[in-house]
Amino acid sequence: MNIFRGPSTLVLTINGERRKVVVEPHETLLDLLRSPQVGLTGAKPGCENGDCGACTILLNQKPAKSCMMFAVDAEGQDLVTVEGLVDAPVQRAFLDHFAFQCGYCTSGFLMAAQALLLTIPHPDPHQITEWLRSNICRCTSYEEILQAVREASER
Amino acid sequence: MTSVGVNVPRKEAPNKVTGRARYTRDLCQPGTLYGLLVPAHVAHARIRAVETSAAKGLDGVKAVITGDDVSFLTGDVIEDHPPLARGKVRYWGEPIALVVARDAATAQRAANLVRLHCDPLPVVNSVAEALSEHAPLVHDEVGSYTIATPPAAPRRHSNIADEANVTKGDCDQALRESDVVVTVHVSLPQIDHAAMEPRVATAEILADGRVLVVSSSQAPFEVQKLLAQYFHLHPGQIEVTAPLVGGAFGGKATVQLEILAYLASRAVGGHVVTLANSREVDMATSPVGMGLEADVVLGAASDGRLKAARLTFYLDIGAYADSAPRIARAIAAQCTGPYRVDHLHADVYAVYTNHTYTTAFRGFGHMPMTFAIERAMDELARKLGQDPLDLRQLNALAPGDLSPTKARLTSSNLGNLPETIQRLKPLIGWTGGAPYAVAPHRVRVQGVAAFWKTSSSPPNATSGAIVTMNADGSVNLSIGAVEFGAGTKTAAAQILAEALRIPVSRVFIRDEVSTATAPEHWKTVASLSTYMVGRAVLDAAQDVVRQLKSLAAVVLRCAPEDLDYGNETVFVRDDPTIQLKYADLALGYQYPEGDSIGGQIIGRGRFMIRHLNLLDQETGHGRPGPAWTVGVQAVEVEYDTETHQYQILKAATVLDAGRVINPAMAHGQVRGGMAMGLGIASREQIRYGPQGEFLSNQFRTYKVLRMGEQPDTYLVEFVTNPQVDAPFGARPLGEHGVLAIGAALANALSRASGLALNALPLTPEFIWQQRRTMA
């Protein structure tokens, strides 16, 4: 086990770009992503406790709550944030289904859905529900999000 | 109509699916200092000292302020609220100090070093305790506080912050003459808004005296007004910006963090300081939604016609009054639900407790009020053996009737409830509400409830719109309404596009609102923005058209009356080939010789609601809002009579929407409201420990609906009887999906279980306990 006492330098891949960053030992991955150093504010702090999923990103193609992980643990890992999605079917489907209102949870839902579709390209509604229960939306009825993900999986 | 009544995507939608939408916390300036609130971990205590020396001594700490440093009191209606606890702590989570440090981690370390020395006091932990004889007083000073915005009627030496009454006819006599009387006691816990974006405010005081505030606020103009008042500043010095807001639900219409952020900036020489709530602080320290204890007595004739209502509402407003007096009056004004009751007496009490203070919550008191009335209506139907929808239709208020506060109802200001009821029946496949077995110990049942709501806005609420034309004939629209998800900006753009006969894509609108550049808009609340902003936009559009025509008339050598417009041109009505493009006029018209006339087309519009007044303190009479949106909601549930678990199969709403500006957004608003209402009814509850400890400050302890817990099917339909003074007849509908769906669920489960389920949340455990109590 590594013990970090001060700032450390690490190398990781963010949205396809290899980057060297300097982090404090207490910084979460979410802190790092949103810091001026990286400047990707798409992942949102909603609870910083792993409950709401607004900070969800892809960590080596799997969904991860970036608030629940120390930045130093991301050494060598491959991260994708919502800014790294380019014309993903799920983005189009969220637009078409009005699957958000305030939009604050949207980045997290998109990344959780993206992770799902990478893992299970054609999920059934039960699987969609199981995967997306990790995230909270307070504005919509969830129906819109469910429909959007279903449609994205059929595209 | 090409822009109104169309499913136009949200203007900011592409930004929201790419992470490019910017909320307050996403706008970070270099050099920003971090503020952090230190919450009290005691609910009621006299403060001896708040010890800050260790915190101040920490490297990187810039300032630590406490209640000793802030002598004024705040409050929208009653000035009872010290920004930082002073003299006493009145709720668990109340901020006792504010730390400002170089970075967030240092601020947290410093906050951990702040010590509260206090003498605990007996805790007022419920409405019942607050009203008991010899109850400890949450505020010793009740009755002597300044009332900033009358009316409010605090009662000295009590925990009653305010009371509002409405009286009509002779309630006692009519109850005696009633053939059937039902009595229901309703008990609802406090709830949290739980917007996904925790509240955040940033403040900076510039050397020239200007104050820059950026806040996740629904009410930037209110922030400006109150900061000017509390800190003796000119309103023009203060520029409040509200970027996109990540959900609000009424909880961001109050002013709290902005005051604290200003204090923090002032304490560090005006440097920019940001103050962001953690989820825990957002729930326990910032305001929540009020609890309710209510007694409802309804009297009816044997045919079901309501004769009398005696209603008593006790609101658990927590430790400070905030908007409670306004909400109390909103409840009083609509206290009967959408039913005609000629003999009525209603008392609404706003009761202080040592709970977290409360503010507006989606529906402004109408959701808990509706729950109380609709439970009583269902008990009445049960007692009479009548179809619950028929009972509601029989008693529906109609044009020509008077509201409880004797406001005259018309076919314009009142939606058509009977029509919504008739539409609901085929929509849900109405069975009459009797449970029927579908498997051993499994029954299906439907439950219904109806609602009405008006805005309860102050009579002088104002709104405005400014339209400037670009060189190519497209337009920029500036309004003061905040975008927190309701689609206000998009609806305003649709209204402008329709009025100027241009595509919505030719209307540009900024995501954020700045009080320095946008025209004043009271607050983005009360489902009013489409109405108020929309009217101002129509006024501005007329101004634009008038300017286009008068300039074109000069160039085309005709009278402005000869001109019509469309397709981004102004043309002679009887010979459209004689025309000018909007683009030719946008920045003034330039003749071929080069000389020019006119100047930029700049339209301005404004709006105030007419004929509103404050309710009379004695009789409660008055006109509380411009119009009442009505509707009916239903659920179908499958209920297990042994485990008391249930599944919501269908949830339905039929609402009189007047005309729908954007059907997809309107359906989304209503469905989202239904989901929130069902979450509140089925699982949400702020719990307090025996000493008033706030126990529900995370999503692990405060459960909201998650995917898979929503109804299997949502059914939403609109009937369309226009409100004639609203833009294109559109009635408000932003809050309404939440209002009666919880009552419909309670009615369904009461019918299924044979119990009177008059409290929330309706957990299987609660139903089981009720069954045991009955047995």
How is this structure best described in words?
The complex is a heterodimer of chains A (155) and B (775). With 155 residues, chain A is of the alpha+beta class. Chain A has two domains: 8-81, Ubiquitin-like (UB roll); 84-154, DNA polymerase, domain 1 (Orthogonal Bundle), CATH 1.10.150.120. Chain A contains five helices and five strands; from the N terminus they run E-E-H-E-E-E-H-H-H-H. In chain A, a hairpin with a 2-residue loop joins strand 1 (8-14) and strand 2 (17-23). Chain A is elongated, with a radius of gyration of 16 Å. The termini of chain A are far apart. The mean pLDDT of chain A is 96. With 775 residues, chain B is an alpha+beta fold. Chain B has three domains: 31-123 and 194-284, Aldehyde Oxidoreductase, domain 3 (Alpha-Beta Complex); 291-457 and 613-774, 2-Layer Sandwich (Aldehyde Oxidoreductase, domain 4); 462-608, Aldehyde oxidase/xanthine dehydrogenase, molybdopterin binding domain (Aldehyde Oxidoreductase, domain 4, 2-Layer Sandwich), CATH 3.30.365.10. Chain B has 18 helices and 30 strands. The mean pLDDT of chain B is 97. Classes of the chains: A alpha+beta (155), B alpha+beta (775).
Précis, in short:
Helices cover 31% and strands 16% of the residues of chain A.
Comma- or semicolon-separated keywords:
heterodimer, A: 155 residues, alpha+beta, Ubiquitin-like (UB roll), DNA polymerase, domain 1, 2 domains, 5-stranded mixed β-sheet, elongated, B: 775 residues, Aldehyde Oxidoreductase, domain 3, Aldehyde Oxidoreductase, domain 4, 3 domains, 8-stranded mixed β-sheet, 26% strand
